[in-house]
């Protein structure tokens, strides 16, 4: 199936097409490019023009370039434009214009990727649904997601993120959503904003892209909710709220267990119960927002409430797995909660609540009782209050339910110092140091949470823990 013909892409971008090619997809990475893709030679850390020859050798239908790179023949299948990123944006805008899809855009300080994935999973049961496979939510990710959208798409889910003021509105106008949802507003990227109110104003800019008559889906439980509501009202959007304080989609009860969340809610006069096969109050809130968005898109929210049970968090965002420590004894296992992709005070609070609700297994490890173990990496981009925000984690009520907390990074040292001495685990400056000690800090029966900002690199600890079974076999006496 053709996604872009040479002539269509040339008209969309204002570029000059060489050859009569047809592209079945759009790619920016030669490592994952598929035969038939249009390769987009973006300039980022490296110049994509350096990889055009390789892309064509791998079967790319053509390449979107601003000049003919060295090593590429003059008559190669190309789309030549003045500016590659600007052309990708135009390609995305053209893809959006040619479809009758109902479009939902999602942003938020926490949970936008998980919510995007939830929406994709429930909507694909109701129609042809398009969404990015990865967290493509920035200045090139959004136009790339749009450019990949087939013309016959019925539902599209677009994730929109930001690091600095002024980034969300242009991307929202490009996506032109019928529904725009804000999952939450939290202390993230505070280095670029004066306060959390500034973050709320930036998140609310997503409503500037709404189609006429569009719907704003807003978390009702935030200190900054009034800012979000005011922005939506000023733009004439239809407003629907969700949360405990909402009168539209009212969260009435959340029950957490080791591997699931049961959510009870009230939608108008109707009671709703749905289950998510992963633990987390934040997942309950996002799931309720998904039902609201499904309704606003004209979908079937009753079907969505059933189908949401099949969703699982993306890798690194709360996924839970069982790790075997001894291949000869299937009882010698520990549970690993991988939440190593991102962290701020709000998501950290949610993750620790999940860990506190988990049930370790007693009597199977070297220590008689199973433990709740937290391995926490630095929360980055929090600005001048980062010391206090890390230290205050020690005040969370769920800390009382944890047995030991290991801290990774110079910022997490503030938390380690604030913890009660019996709960202090190891404190290291780098994730690599703790990864090298991974086999010494876990035991059969434990439930282990790894959480931190991506830049803290605690994913190294996750990988080391997954391999710890083989190490433990060789070092059974190591305490």
UniProtKB/TrEMBL annotation:
Keywords: ATP-binding, Cell cycle, Cell division, Cell shape, Cell wall biogenesis/degradation, Cytoplasm, Ligase, Nucleotide-binding, Peptidoglycan synthesis. ATP binds at residues 108-114. Its EC number is 6.3.2.10. GO terms for molecular function: ATP binding; UDP-N-acetylmuramoyl-tripeptide-D-alanyl-D-alanine ligase activity; UDP-N-acetylmuramoylalanyl-D-glutamyl-2,6-diaminopimelate-D-alanyl-D-alanine ligase activity. It is found in: Cytoplasm. Coiled coil: none annotated. Residues 24-91 form the Mur ligase N-terminal catalytic domain. It catalyses: D-alanyl-D-alanine + UDP-N-acetyl-alpha-D-muramoyl-L-alanyl-gamma-D-glutamyl-meso-2,6-diaminopimelate + ATP = UDP-N-acetyl-alpha-D-muramoyl-L-alanyl-gamma-D-glutamyl-meso-2,6-diaminopimeloyl-D-alanyl-D-alanine + ADP + phosphate + H(+). It holds the Pfam family Mur_ligase_M. Residues 334-453 form the Mur ligase C-terminal domain. InterPro entries: Mur-like_cat_sf, Mur_ligase_C, Mur_ligase_C_dom_sf, Mur_ligase_cen, Mur_ligase_N, MurCDEF_CellWall_CoF430Synth, MurE/MurF_N, UDP-N-AcMur_synth. GO terms for biological process: cell division; cell wall organization; peptidoglycan biosynthetic process; regulation of cell shape. Residues 106-293 form the Mur ligase central domain. SUPFAM superfamilies: MurD-like peptide ligases, catalytic domain, MurD-like peptide ligases, peptide-binding domain, MurE/MurF N-terminal domain. Pathway: Cell wall biogenesis; peptidoglycan biosynthesis. Gene3D superfamilies: Mur ligase, C-terminal domain, Mur-like, catalytic domain, MurE/MurF, N-terminal domain. One of its GO terms (cellular component) is cytoplasm. Belongs to the MurCDEF family. MurF subfamily. Involved in cell wall formation. Catalyzes the final step in the synthesis of UDP-N-acetylmuramoyl-pentapeptide, the precursor of murein. This is UDP-N-acetylmuramoyl-tripeptide--D-alanyl-D-alanine ligase. The gene is murF.
């Amino acid at each position: 199936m053709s996604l872009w013909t040479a002539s269509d892409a040339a008209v969309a971008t204002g570029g000059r097409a060489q050859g009569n090619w047809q592209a079945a997809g759009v790619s920016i990475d030669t490592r994952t490019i598929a035969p038939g893709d249009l390769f987009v030679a973006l300039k980022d850390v490296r110049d994509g023009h350096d990889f055009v020859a390789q892309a064509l050798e791998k079967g790319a239908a053509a390449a979107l370039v601003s000049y003919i790179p060295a090593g590429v023949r003059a008559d190669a299948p190309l789309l030549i434009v003045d500016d590659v990123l600007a052309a990708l944006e135009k390609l995305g805008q053209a893809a959006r214009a040619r479809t009758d899809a109902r479009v939902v855009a999602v942003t938020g300080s926490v949970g936008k990727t998980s919510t995007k994935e939830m929406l994709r999973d429930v909507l694909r049961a109701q129609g042809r649904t398009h969404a990015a496979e990865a967290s493509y939510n920035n200045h090139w990710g959004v136009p790339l997601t749009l450019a990949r959208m087939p013309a016959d798409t019925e539902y599209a889910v677009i994730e929109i993120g930001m690091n600095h003021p002024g980034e969300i509105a242009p991307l929202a106008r490009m996506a032109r959503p019928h529904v725009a949802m804000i999952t939450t507003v939290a202390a993230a990227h505070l280095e670029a904003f004066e306060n959390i109110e500034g973050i709320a104003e930036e998140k609310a800019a997503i409503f500037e892209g709404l189609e006429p008559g569009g719907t704003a889906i807003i978390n009702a439980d935030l200190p900054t909710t009034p800012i979000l509501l005011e922005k939506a009202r000023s733009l004439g959007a239809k407003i629907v709220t969700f949360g405990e304080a909402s009168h539209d989609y009212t969260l009435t009860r959340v029950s957490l267990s080791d591997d699931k969340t049961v959510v009870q809610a009230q939608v108008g006069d109707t009671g709703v119960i749905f289950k998510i096969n992963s633990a987390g109050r934040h997942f309950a809130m996002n799931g309720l927002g998904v039902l609201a968005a499904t309704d606003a898109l004209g979908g079937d929210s009753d079907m969505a409430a059933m189908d949401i049970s099949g969703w699982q968090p993306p890798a690194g965002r709360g996924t839970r797995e069982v790790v075997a420590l001894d291949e000869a004894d299937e009882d010698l296992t520990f549970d690993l909660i991988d939440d190593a992709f991102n962290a701020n005070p709000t998501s950290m609070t949610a993750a620790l609540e999940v860990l506190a609700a988990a049930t370790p297994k007693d009597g199977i490890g070297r220590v008689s009782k199973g433990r709740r173990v937290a391995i926490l990496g630095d929360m980055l981009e929090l600005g001048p209050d980062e010391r206090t925000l890390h230290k205050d984690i020690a005040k969370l009520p769920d800390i009382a339910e944890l047995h030991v907390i290991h801290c990774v990074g110079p910022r997490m040292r503030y938390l380690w110092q604030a913890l009660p001495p019996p709960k202090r685990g190891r404190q290291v400056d780098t994730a690599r140091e703790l990864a090298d000690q991974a086999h010494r800090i876990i035991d059969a029966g434990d439930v282990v949470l790894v959480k931190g900002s991506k830049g803290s690199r605690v994913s190294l600890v996750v990988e080391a823990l997954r391999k710890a079974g083989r190490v433990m076999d060789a070092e059974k006496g190591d305490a």
